[in-house]
Write a structure and sequence with these properties.
The chain is mainly α. The chain has 2 helices and no strands. The longest helix is centred in the middle third of the chain and has 52 residues. The mean pLDDT is 70.
Length: 65
């Protein structure tokens, strides 16, 4: 049980870490938003998602003919 408590606390720490990263990304997105709103956010979003799920490996890089 003590081990489980430790794991839970560790998970809580990880979650807080993730929230920090999310806030960081949000800050960057706001910077880009002032620029050319929709395009940059969508570009960043798709690159981000693509990196996460390996979309580019599965379907090929979008700029292929």
């Amino acid at each position: 049980d003590r081990q489980n408590g430790k794991d839970d606390r560790q998970n809580g720490k990880d979650d807080r870490q993730n929230e920090k990263v999310d806030r960081q990304i949000g800050k960057v997105d706001r910077l880009f938003a002032s620029d050319d709103q929709l395009l940059t956010i969508f570009d960043r979003f798709f690159v981000f998602v693509g990196r996460f799920f390996g979309v580019f490996e599965r379907f090929g890089v979008p700029d292929d003919p």
